[in-house]
Amino acid sequence: MDEPLVYARTAAGEKALLQPGLSLPPELRELLAAVDGVTDAAELERRLEYGEHVDAGLEALERRGLIRRLAVRAQLWQVVLGDGPIDEPASPVGSAHPDPAPSESDAAGRGDSPGLLGSWSAWRRKWAARQDEKAFRRAYETLSDDDRFAPVEIKPIRRGRRRKMSWLLSAVSVLTLFAIGILLLALLFPYQRYRPEIERRLGASLHDQVRISKVLFSFQPYPNVTLAGVVIGAEPYAEIKAIRVLPDPFSLFGSNWIVTHLRIEDMLIRGRGIGSSARWLSGVPGQEGAILVRGAKFDRLSVDLGGSRLSGLSGELSTSSEGGAIRILLHKDPLHLRLEPTAAGYRLSVQADALTIPFGALPEPTITQLDLQGEIRPGLLHLTKIDGRLYGGFVAGTADLAWSQAASLVADIGLRSVSSERLWASAATGLSLQGDLGGKFHIGSRAAKLAGLAEHLRVDGEFLVERGAIEGLDLIEAVRSKRQTRGGTTRFERFTGELQLDGPACHLSRLALSSSLMRAEGHLDIASDRRIGGSMALELTGAATRIHASIAIAGTLDEPQIEVGRRARISP
User: Fold this and answer.
1) Which of 357, 363, 409, 529 has most Cβ atoms within 10 angstroms of its Cβ?
2) Is 459 part of a structural domain of the chain?
3) Average pLDDT for residues 242-255, to the nearest whole number?
4) How confident is the model at residue 232 (pLDDT cuts 50, 70, 90)?
């Protein structure tokens, strides 16, 4: 018993004790006799042998009307909490006004219903009172003397920082588990099932047939969806080893898929695919069921132009909000290319720090700070601007390079203040030209492929060299000595002529060389085997005489020689 209840016998209970013949079990009769209006229920439990049944026995006697609840002895926790019972005035046992036996209606009014319902109501009241008492004791009661010597479990003090660390570790653990779950989903997702749909959407975006060998998840160079073995075109004009895709996951539920970043690796575009690639890179805004690309990167891009391949290009693709390409920036030392897609091809801009141009049997000049602008279309490169620096001078012009059927080159080039010595440096060891070279030249060539254009190069034009010298020939000494000479130097103020270059052979005509004391006119031929031959009409002017002579030039570029003709004469 947790509640210290006090019961007293009613008149019916007194009569029951005086009538031995009343049908009461021995335990109930003994309990009825023990009820005296003073001893509480807890004390009755300790006194009687069957104390564990006192609670049930008191309830049974109360239901029969033999006892009544006199008062509840208030506990400290009930006084503090304000939940103590209100004492009712106790009537003496031998009161002159005995309590009448309770009727069924009175029992129902107090909530003491007989049977199972009454037992349930009493149990609920006891349970509530017991919980309130336990709560109070935990809050207010002190240890007894016996409890002071009981072992105390000392728990470690948890400081606020450790609690924060524990929350941080919990959060990291949850995020780690979430990341592992996402990773497993990405690895086990059946990408290959969606290959036909990806091919269809890529075809709608590129306006051509697209075939993909495999769709898979990859970690290189970052977690991505990889499209492997991509071929574009019914007759393939573009082949891609791998496309690394980072899609916008929310766009996959819409009509148009959005790719935030694309990495295109080992792509090959053949010459006839330049126009098609420009068309599908430019995109079609608003097209349903397409794939819109927000940005792309190229690694190891190659372009095949009529059998000649420009490979190893890398760069980036910038797009508009509608998905069309704005510009493509590619680079491969020393080239830096900028491409802007158009309806027919690309607008082209090329910058280079140093570029060597193949020039047949003649030296291969290295152009520095080259700037090209123009347009590239299927089978044609049209350059509207060529601007660069060549051996200390300047070069400018235009050019058209075609390769659709046969390869051809047509260009108009102008030179100004170019060092002729550096240009001629590797052409010969015995004969060289010094001075500032300028001129205008028309260049043309035709061949089966681009690689053969240098072998069939033809150049026509006029040149001018100022304030220079011819190393390996001494025209003045040859006239004075009237014998065959080799070596020496002929200095001049101005040297002009016409140039015709046909492959490795070269013809210089209408040559005019002048200085303060000399005038010379003639021609010179250079054969493919490096033999030279020509003639010059020379005039030397002195203080009192003038010498006219005919000079023959022969030998090779490595060992040129001069011989004066017999018709040389002296006039006053």
Assistant:
1) 409
2) no
3) 82
4) very high
Q: Which amino acid is at 23?
A: S
Summarize the chain as % helix, strand, coil (round to 5): 30, 45, 30
Considering the domain boundaries, does residue 183 fall inside one?
Answer: no
Could you tell me if 195 and 331 lie in one domain?
A: yes
Task: Kindly indicate the confidence band of residue 208, based on its pLDDT and cuts at 50, 70 and 90.
Answer: confident
Q: What are phi and psi of 48, to 5 degrees?
A: -80, 150
* Residue at a domain's end among 344, 370, 389: 344
**Is residue 320, in this structure, part of any structural domain at all?**
yes
Q: Give the other-Cβ count within 10 Å of 333's Cβ.
A: 9
Let me know whether 286 and 428 are in one domain: no
For residues 61 and 68, what is the distance between their CA atoms, to the nearest angstrom? 8
CA distance 432 to 472: 7
User: What is the C-alpha separation between 220 and 218, in angstroms, rounded?
Assistant: 6
**DSSP of 273-288:** GHHHHHHHHH--TT-T
Tell me the mean pLDDT in the region 155-175. Answer: 67
Q: Among 140, 165, 181, where does a domain finish?
A: 140
Structure tokens at 37: 């209006």
The parent domain of residue 421 ranges over 354-450
Q: Is the peptide bond before 26 cis (omega within 30 degrees of 0)?
A: no
For 226, how many CA atoms within 13 A lie in the half-sphere containing its CB?
17
Q: What's the pLDDT score for residue 516?
A: 85
Whether 288 has a pLDDT exceeding 50, the answer reads: yes
E-strand stretches of 421-531: 432-447, 458-471, 485-486, 489-502, 505-514, 518-526
Q: Are 207 and 281 in contact (CB under 8 A)?
A: no
CA-based nearest residue to 442, from 518, 499, 527: 499
**Does residue 143 register a pLDDT over 70?**
no
467 in the Ramachandran plot: left (φ > 0), alpha (ψ -120 to 50) or beta? left
Cα 536 from Cα 548, distance rounded (Å)? 11
In 3D space, the residue among 287, 286, 333 whose CA is nearest the CA of residue 313 turns out to be: 333
Q: Is the pLDDT reported for residue 89 higher than 60?
A: no
Using the predicted structure, report yes or no on whether residue 367 has a pLDDT greater than 60: yes
Residue with tokens 């801009």: 349
